Amino acid sequence: MIAELGLFFLIFALLASMMLAVVPLLGLQFQRPCWQDTAKTYVIWQFSFIAIAYLCLTSCFLLDDFSIVYVVNNSSIALPWFYKLCAVWGGHEGSMLLWVAILSFWMILVAFFSSSLDKEMYTRVLVVLGWLSIGFILFLLTTSNPFLRQFQVLNTQGRDLNPLLQDPGFLFHPPMLYMGYVGFSVAFAFAIAALWSGKVEASWSKWTRPWTLAAWCCLTAGITLGSWWAYRELGWGGWWFWDPVENASFMPWLVGTALLHSLAVTEQRQQFKAWTMLLAIAAFSLSLIGTFLVRSGVLTSVHAFAVDPQRGMYILGFLLIVIGGSLVLFLFRAQTLQTQTSPGLVSRESALLLNNVFLVVIMLTVLMGTVYPLLIDGLGLGKLSVGAPYFNAVFVPLMIPMLLLMGIGVHLKWNADKGRQVFLRLNKTFILSLVLPPLLLITTGSELDFSVLLGLTLALWVILSTLNALYKKIAERGLSGVGQSYWGMVLAHCGVAATVIGISVSTAYGIQDDVQMNPGKTFNLAGYAIQFIKQTALQGPNYKGTRTEFSISDGSTIKTIYPEKRLYNIGQMAMTESAIDVTPFRDIYVALGEPLNDNSWSVRLYYKPFVRWIWSGGFMILAGGFCALTDRRYYQKRRVAATRGIRV
Amino acid sequence: MNRIGWRIIPILFFLLLSVLLWRGLSLDPHTLPSVQVGKILPAFALPELIHPEKIFKSNQIPQQVVLLNVWASWCAACVDEQVFMMELSRKGVPVYGLNYKDNADDAIKWLEQWGNPYKVIVQDSQGKTAIDLGVYGAPETFIIDKKGLIRYRHAGIMSQKVWADEMAPLMKQLDNNG
């Protein structure tokens, strides 16, 4: 009964989004303001219906209704209740429902927090989002109904949620990621609405920027959490695998980053409008292409959902309409956006444009690597997969000039600057960041490694130069004269630098050892004595296993950690629950391999210096985005602009 | 062309990409074509599960169209399939079982619990015969014809649909072909 209710409400939601897509549109066409005004009501309806449908599916999970195909495939009686809540998005159908729910959540936010927008623009944005939701809800209803029943009698306790996903990281990672992916639809809708109306007002970028920032923050959080989850849960000690699905989340992030920077130029200088529009379209398009790659089964991946060509065809058709349509619109409408003024060669605009070029080129190389197996397979040249070596080989050389530019860009003035003055402003910082890294390595007694020197130099360059710019700004305008957006920029740039430090140091100085250990045995790793104390049997709610105790001693302090090996009852999937001893400057990571004879285990030990910095950097970037998002400027000036608009 | 300029590049790029994606849809990266279909059932001589002292050889399968079902007591999906297997067995479809990488005691307990649809079950505790068959998980079901050729393979749970759409017609056809 609950499942049928859920399905009904999903159909109601489809009707609401159809109304949203049509009635206000006709209102715009025939100049009927009262029809336009209905947009908000339909958004509220759509949101409520989808929320009810989502709650219905959740309660099916909590009640273990195994007559629903999706529930039997992704849950089991013994699954703890909080994992049942997450299991709702553990498979294709439910995660699509989550996607649609998040889309309508963003829509309701837009409906309620953009009332200061120009009326017509407001309606257009919601109409565009309405069309998008029709596409997604139809996708759910036609190819991926999560409420589908099955009537075969099954002697089953449920096939259980994939044990890899039974981790606290999974509580937050997918919803955050989806918040980001779907959030770009708002910027997309703003761009389409502007192109559609044929005019871009000066305040367009000011409206768009907070929404883009919000989506970008969610995506940053999602990617960082995902990387952290992979590190803890997969037991390989790696934090990024260049897996197609990771790339699918990284590409919109890169373009979203470019979009944020380009919006800054459009906001301040009214330039690059066409380019900004294109980025806004591209960021969302890449989210959609990512969805296609993950859900159509064209690529193999750890994350890939069940193969279904019918779903693939639907999404491809949807892609063609949405992306193709908006790019055609862009092709014919964007010429009205061209600005005649061009900034000086040495100026902040040029630096930001160059930054955009780098980000887009990086995105294209990642895209190339991701779809290359398809190209080769399509040409009948065999099956292959493109792995980390390709990505590292192209990614690192592109990051070097990019980081150099980050340090210079923050010191440049708008419109025009003089190359010589910039040199004078920055030469000391540059020399300092060249000299400090070798000194640091020598004083800490580490071996001189080229990649670490390079990483440290670039990171220090970004940090010192950003702090220097901040110092100058404070000296010039006082502490209160520095806007929150600026603080956000400082935080985010330093976050990038922290990540660079984390990556280069942990990669170069990390140690991995595979050893055979039995209780009582001690092994020395990077100056730490790691002792296997004992092992005990483990009985979890839906798994059995072994829990071991290891002590880690650096001579003065002793810490104890508990790595586990779990065998999930359903499917007999073995899972390694690694245990990590964490300090800000190093991780000691112990993962159990296979049990060997006479009580001993093959054990994998990692010493990873500075690995925490990778995610700390990610969270700093997130904090920076958040800081910029809460800048009062957007909310105040918008009101001023609105009142001014009425006066004129 | 001047009006359009560089702005045509994104759409061209996108069209190229969609052709690629469309091509990709018709290719399945997961397909592991079963090399075994059309070949002779790999020879085996394995102990029976119920009477482990007896060795059952592949050529002891009678000359008729039979199902060979690969299962294990540790395999949750096999439980789901069992109700249907019992139904087939009651209808008179000869089903042979290959107990895959299992512990004999667990397997017998499992049969007591869920029912035994099999004419004969052999123990493939090392999984060697399963490798010869190209099995990559349990459950899997094969159709073996009268000459001992593998004619069909279904990986995963047998459902009413697969049975009615593909397997039952094929078995009937093979039965009639003498």
Features:
heterodimer, A: 648 residues, Tick-borne Encephalitis virus Glycoprotein, domain 1, 6-stranded antiparallel beta sheet, 19 helices, B: 178 residues, two-stranded antiparallel ribbon, 5 helices
What does this structure look like?
The complex is a heterodimer of chains A (648) and B (178). With 648 residues, chain A is α+β, with helices and mostly antiparallel strands. Among the domains of chain A are: 2-257 and 274-292 and 303-330 and 621-647, no CATH class; 511-612, Tick-borne Encephalitis virus Glycoprotein, domain 1, CATH 2.60.98. Helix content of chain A is 64%, strand content 11%. Chain A contains 19 helices and 10 strands. In chain A, strands 2, 3, 4, 5, 6 and 7 form a 6-stranded antiparallel beta sheet that branches. Chain A has a 4-stranded antiparallel beta sheet with strand order 1-10-9-8, covered by helices on one side. In chain A, a hairpin with a 5-residue loop joins strand 6 (564-568) and strand 7 (574-577). In chain A, helix 9 runs antiparallel to helix 10 (244-269), helix 9 (204-233) packs antiparallel against helix 18 (612-629) and helix 14 packs parallel to helix 16. Chain A is flat. The termini of chain A are far apart. Chain B is of the alpha/beta class. Chain B has helices at residues 8-26, 76-90, 104-114, 128-133, 160-176, and strands at 45-47, 55-57, 66-71, 95-100, 121-124, 140-144, 150-155. In chain B, the strands form 2 sheets. Chain B has a 5-stranded mixed beta sheet with strand order 5-4-3-6-7. The longest helix of chain B is centred in the N-terminal third of the chain and has 19 residues, at 8-26. Chain A binds chain B through residues 152-157, 159-160, 274, 278, 281-282, 285, 289, 292, 296-300, 307, 309, 312-313, 316, 319-320, 323-324, 327-328, 330-332, 334-335, 371, 373-375, 377-378, 383, 570-572, and chain B through 3-5, 7-8, 10-11, 14-15, 17-18, 20-30, 74-77, 79-80, 82-84, 114, 159-160.
